[in-house]
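Attaching the record inline, Q. Sequence:
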Amino acid sequence: MFRYFFSQPAECAGPSHGTSGGHDLSYYTKCMLGGILACGLTHTAVCPLDIVKCNMQANYTKFKSMKSSYQALVAENGGHSWMKLGWLPTLIGYSLQGSAKFGFYEIFKDLYGGAFSSLFGQENALTFRSIIWVTASASAEFFADILLCPFESVKVRIQTSAKGTFPETFVPGWNQIKNTEGTNGFYKGIAPLWGRQIPYTIMKFVVFEKVVAIIFEDILRCKREDCSKGFNLSMTFLAGYIAGVVCAVVSHPADSLFTAYNKKKTEGAFMVEIKKIYAEMPPGGLWKGLVARIFMVGTLTGLQWWIYDSWKAACGLKPTGS
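Structure, as predicted:
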């Protein structure tokens, strides 16, 4: 099983799968634009579910289930006004992150594929292309998170702070963190963010590409480009949803720590604060909100891949995993 996950017969591979593909700036630019659409729009669309999930993680003694969390938020806010909390930093942050996630992934995939081919030969680069996917996706997410972190920090504080203790809109919230905590307030959560997002992104790309390969090469036994656009996009969504479920489970503990860490102003050393947060959690606290996150991440990951491949099709590019 391990060998299947990290290897594949050479005859099934192609330049777009992690070898030296020779893509130009136009291709990478289109991928970056597709990433903006895929990540920015989907994360903003599921913002209400994200608010429920974040409050279950940050205020786990108060918000104990999705249903009770929803009811509490409605009661405290006198309606559904809470559903738009943090939508603007979500839109900006994940648009920037999406452009780097998808665009840099394509760039690193070509760079690492070319280097791997030079060192170990073209056949080995094709056979073990999943290793290239792993390293390319991890590298892309490292830089994408640097763009995302300040906006994610503001978003979490807006969504989880007790009413009246923190601004409920983006610009005032940004200014409060800037004036009271400085740069550290925006980037203090970068380590847990990397811990959440890098495993997430590795699974997002590798599992997606592997599921696509299983569907077309093992089950249907046909080339993806021989199928209709509609069928291809439906399989894109299916593979993306499966990848999203795996992503949610793998990255959830780090997501819980990130949410709790960014909820309030912290003054101690990072590891000291993390240990304190973990010690305060009830048994299984790292897994609070997992069901909500599986539903949220599975849905948005499937939609992200669907939007991304739809954009590529509109630009005349082949769907991912062709």
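The chain has a mean pLDDT of 84. The domain at 13-314 is CATH 1.50.40.10 (Mitochondrial carrier fold).

More tomorrow.
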